[in-house]
Q: What sequence folds into this?
DNA sequence: CCGGGGGGTGAGCGGTCGCTTAGGGTACGG
DNA sequence: CCGTACCCTAAGCGACCGCTCACCCCCCGG
């Protein structure tokens, strides 16, 4: 898992900066942004407290970088799956499956990305909110397609979109890698639940 | 809303202790436990920083009291609704409707209750986790009843239970009292979504 | 062999944190 | 009228925070 976890941070260079990001994700996910000290982050990365400031101007900038990379990764997954050929039901299932699998597999990153947003500065926060709106629009697009095709029965499209995304995001909060469910299993279960939520009747 | 909000804290006496709890809930919900200072809480309650320690031994004890009252209130609502007479579908809809309405109406309290748990000390945390397990058991009981009666079609009961509760809880994160949805509307929407998730076919 | 620059460290600064302490104001029983 | 029990405050203690600074080491071109 260590190698796999570091691959998602491949775009962060040099090596020391990437080690700091990985250490920060672990610390933020475990205790939260405000309860984490810069000394703790540097210590986990095997450096002195001062080394952090060679690569990042502030602790908040570290969170911003993590949040940006994480949101872009999640959005990319969602767009790739929702853009495939297929019926709206197939596209919704694929999107939810992949989105949930990412939130489970990278639940430490996802926890930081989804639940520590409020600690961002005003400008950085506004930028991230823009990415979140795109996530919302992507899911809503699939559901609208399904309604237009007569495959889905959804009385409240924006509300149901919100609920589906909310359900997926919350996986990051409760998922435990030592639990008995694998990311694949949770993704499969949630894809089915999402289809049920939009009133898709399988096999009919 | 002020009066209504303070009513849920009626069991906290004397008055000064209750004002501190209300101030702490507002501050914790807005910035999180670790980003809130005891000076901020006391200031919101119209007292000096030292006054907090007349009524609570530590800042963590304040969180513990809030968490305890909130969890007990939410569990009480869930049990009352799930214990009514009626079909499993009616009971599930009523439970979800009321549980979600509480999370929306008291979304500041609910946010603290649901998302600041990790800041509790070890013993207090363990106690609260016990209450959460009872919440889980209550919802699972309804779903099992529905499956036994042949009204619900649920391949994975524990997983679906977890998803339904997760969906309800996450309302506290995104709900905004200045948004366009009322707590009643969200409760209604979510009751319908929960029935869909358990494979209940209305009117058939 | 030397000079310079980028990544690193030890020590520590100013500020703020959770919490404590000494004492003041007020209502009330005797 | 006094004692006293209860809330409360002003001031501040020790610890720890985010962040900085002076300096060091090591690699590399000339």
A:
């Amino acid at each position: 898992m260590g190698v796999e976890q570091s691959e998602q941070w491949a775009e962060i260079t040099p090596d020391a900066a990437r080690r700091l990001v990985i250490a920060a994700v672990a610390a933020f996910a475990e205790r939260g942004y405000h309860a984490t000290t810069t000394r703790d982050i540097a210590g986990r990365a095997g450096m002195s407290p001062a080394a952090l400031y060679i690569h990042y101007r502030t602790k908040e900038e570290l969170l911003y970088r993590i949040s940006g990379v994480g949101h872009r990764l999640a959005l990319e997954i969602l767009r790739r799956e929702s853009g495939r050929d297929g019926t709206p039901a197939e596209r919704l299932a694929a999107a939810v499956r992949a989105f949930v699998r990412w939130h489970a597999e990278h639940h430490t990153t996802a926890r930081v990305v989804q639940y520590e947003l409020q600690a961002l500065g005003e400008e950085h926060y506004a930028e991230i909110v823009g990415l979140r709106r795109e996530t919302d629009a992507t899911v809503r697009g699939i559901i609208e397609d399904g309604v237009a095709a007569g495959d889905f029965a959804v009385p409240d499209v924006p509300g149901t979109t919100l609920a589906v995304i909310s359900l997926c995001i919350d996986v990051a909060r409760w998922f435990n890698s030592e639990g008995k469910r694998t990311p694949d299993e949770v993704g499969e279960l949630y894809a089915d639940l999402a289809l049920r939520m939009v009133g898709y009747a399988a096999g009919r």
Observations:
- Chain A touches chain B through 29 residues (CB under 8 Å).
- Chain A has a mean pLDDT of 94.
